[in-house]
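Example record for the data management plan.
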Amino acid sequence: LAPHSSQVEDVYSLVHQTMTQPHVKDYVPFSWTTMVHVKSEHFKALSHYFAAIALCDCPVASESELPEQEKAFLQFHVTMPEGPSLRVLLQDPEERRKLGKAHLKKAIMKHEEAMRIHGLCKILRKMDILQEVLSFAHKRSLSKYSEIDHEEDFFETGDAPDIHPKTHQKPEIKPPNFSQVKVTDLFHRLGPLSVFSAKNKWYPARRVHLMRGENGFGFTLRGDSPVLIAGVIPGGCAAAAGLKEGDYIVSVNGQDCRWAKHAEVVQLLKSSGADGVDVAVITLHGSEAPRAVDKKAAGMSSGMLKSNKENSRKSLMNSKSPSTLLVWSKKSKRSKKSTYSGVPFTAVGDNEAMY
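Corresponding structural encoding:
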């Protein structure tokens, strides 16, 4: 376990050195770099802890086992520890305890360094599991140190050499399976990407206060997520409040409506009392141009109505408005009770409703 831990520490140290290079550190979050540094110190502490356990808890080798242990011990440390010869070290329990105590001292120092670095990062301090792992490993090394420490120890604990990194395991790069991880879309709060994306530019949201008139608010709605104001009746309540054709409703009475369905927005509007309703809308850049085309088309159509009243009904049913915001259908039906007289014909389509 000690060489394995040292190998992991060696890899994390290399990653940390790469992260702190001048051309890399500006693109890596501080919390990531700190996490790698914490893990580097943590696994170095574990390598010394497991080395101390091997020296203090394993039984003394017999004469037949001694050659094999000598060979393994020569490959265990980066440099040979100071003190007695290798054979004396392996056969004398007291010498093994002294070296084990030196390893534990170094392990405790590295544990404390990992906890200190962890405490410097505000984001890492919120990770309770990481804090528990570091604290548990630190307490375990302290407990083992207290167990092997004797009151009559008057010798000065030496500096234990590092453990030689070695492992039979080969690192394998595996891409994460994002389908198994539940995450929140970073752009969800912006709204549907069909409108709230980098390819579109919009003015800041503006708030208008609407009071219901005799014929309602005086506009037509269309679509879902977000709901579009497809038409505004001239002289109506909506027009007086400043609503424009092509505006998107983003909130009603402070409730976010960017992801709301058509029926949900209608219900919020209908539930408004005598004090009216506060509506927040946004206008896309360039959405004024299509409305100008619509007005021109409406003027041409009105001329056609004056010149030929009989053909106006057929042309009204068969024509398609060039507006990008409105859609017409030949099967459009009108309610006899609806007050559409005086409303431009481009204002209401079969998939729209007046409120």
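Summary line stored alongside the record: The longest helix spans residues 30-57.
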